[in-house]
Amino acid sequence: MSTTTVNDRTPTSPPPERRRLRATPGTFLVWGGMALFLILLFGVVASVVVNSLAGQWFDTWFPSSYTASWYGEAWREYDLGQVVSTTVIVAVAVVSLSVLIGAPASYVLARRNFPGKSLVMLVFLLPIMMPPITYGIPLATLLTYYHLAPGLTGVILANLVPSVPFVILTMTPFIEQINPSIESAARMCGANMTRMFVRILAPLLIPGVLAAAVLVLVRTVGMFELTFLTSNSESDTLVVALFTAMTGAGIRAQQSVDAMAVIYMLMMMVLLVIALRFVNPTQLVSQVRQDAD
Amino acid sequence: MSVSTGKPGKTRGSGAPTPGSRPALSHRLAERGIDRLLLLLVPALLFALVLFVYPFVYGLGLSFQPREGGLFGAYIKFFTDPSMRGLESIWITLKLAVPAAVFNVAASIPLAYKMRGKFRGKRMLTTVLVIPITLGTVLTAEGLLNFFGQRGWLNRFLELFGVGPLDLVQNYWGVLWSLIISGFPFAFLLILSYLSGIDPSLEAAARTLGADWKQRFRKITLPLLAPGLAITFCLTFVLAFSVFPSAILVGDPSGSTRVIAYVAYNAWGQQFDYPLASAAAIVMGAVELAVIVLVLLWRSRMYKGSTGGKG
């Protein structure tokens, strides 16, 4: 809001905007630190990418030869076809279930005040504010007791625990933005609850649902701890497979682990680029402000 | 609002034959916000109770039923047993998580302050900063081992200046690095969005009144930003406090980076001592919540209004 008013007011005077990047010592320090961080980051990523393409790399700046064969080797050696399909199954199941469970709840929380609302909010906030290991260990113990884990069911159930609250917190601001008088109008025209949901709310909510779904997707694909606690070798997702490959290394070539890590990074990047199309980072604030209260 | 005004009319219509006390009761409840719409909350609540509250209570109960040592046996074992070194692991975790969170928040403030305005390449810079989120712990760990390792590019570069090889991974510093790489972009994006929510005209007014940039920052921006800082600190702290895979991959899990998550997992996955593991998990949650409550208490003593412009 405020930025648009500034833009409206100052189309004729660009100098103030440029002046902000004046080279004072402070600015130098800030941009220098930023550049240093980016150089280190670039080095970290580049060293993995280069190593995953290296034929042989001993005590030199760059490998003596390059090959793409590690990717094929990693794919075969770690059975990545199965791992990737497990990851997709888990992600799709978690996303659709958490949206189905979370969206109705976020509607109520956005529109209503009722006794005990803050307690309900607390129950939904705690899984996000707690380290996954803290609730993951009792949960995994219990799931094992009921023979739901280790296995695919356990992985999906465990990953739902932080995802449902996350959907609720992401969607609540989206619903708050929908004008309630639209709903009133629909009801005045004789729509019942179901019709109002299907014909009025659902179409208006599609952006919110997509935002929540994509964010949950990114989180689930990247979630290590909960999957690690509840999976067995057949239900490992890509993160866990990577971790076990790296800790159980030794006989295996490090390059094929690196190749797998690059595959993971590319997959996550595609997801994140899609996510950023739907989610404006500034919307994080309203969501986080919800967290606090 | 709209639905609650529609609701009593509907109940009255359907309950017309018996205008007893029931419509009145539902009407009274509806006035306090309780009506059929709340049923939409049931699946999520049920889910939270079954998959979060129940396991947690179960774990709490389990932690009081150790194999030996009475009611508090598991907790006593966690804190005093020399093979567990529980207290030390709490200290190690805090020593990693607090500096990482403080650094991520503190480094984000000046950067976000400079990036508030519009300039060329802002979008690209933001995108570059988002990339670390996609890396994942394992790629970060591999990269740190390759890049910061004894024969990595960094030490090779330092060698050109005659600086001997530095031990930067497989210890405390390796884990701290990985926490900064994964946490900083997140903290930066949050703080940038809080900062851009502050109305620039407030600062412009202060400038008109003759305040220099230090005064403007200290008296206007910082108080308005404080709630956002507290929340960003909490979220980055939670991320850093639950450090687990990177403590194993780039750290020294048997020594200087024996974090509490590792201790809890060991008791669970290697020793199969579920009461002990539950006790460790409960202690972990309690310590983390204590830090968050402290930060939020500090926040509540600061400025209490909204962050400004947006609402």
Task: Provide a descriptive summary of the structure in words.
The complex is a heterodimer of chains A (293) and B (311). Chain A has 293 residues and is an all-alpha fold. Chain A contains 14 helices and two strands. Chain A has helices at residues 2-9, 15-19, 25-52, 69-77, 80-111, 117-129, 132-145, 152-177, 180-188, 193-222, 225-230, 238-247, 254-278, 283-292; strands spanning 54-56, 65-66. A two-stranded antiparallel sheet of chain A has the order 1-2. In chain A, α4 (69-77) packs across α13 (254-278) and α8 packs across α10. Chain A is globular, with a radius of gyration of 24 Å. Mean pLDDT of chain A is 81; it is low at 1-19 and 284-293. In chain B, α4 packs across α13. With 311 residues, chain B is mostly helical. The model of chain B is unreliable at 1-17 and 307-311 (pLDDT under 50). Chain B is built from 13 helices and no strands. Chain B has helices at residues 2-14, 21-31, 42-63, 73-80, 86-114, 122-148, 153-160, 172-196, 200-208, 213-241, 245-249, 260-270, 274-301. The radius of gyration of chain B is 26 Å and the shape is flat. Classes of the chains: A mainly alpha (293), B mainly alpha (311). At the A-B interface, α1, α3, α5, α6 and α7 of A face α1, α3, α5, α6 and α7 of B. Chain A: It is a multi-pass membrane protein. Chain A: It holds the Pfam family BPD_transp_1. Chain A: InterPro entries: BP-dep_ABC_trans_perm, MetI-like, MetI-like_sf. Chain A: It comes from Arthrobacter jinronghuae. Chain A: Residues 84-275 form the ABC transmembrane type-1 domain.
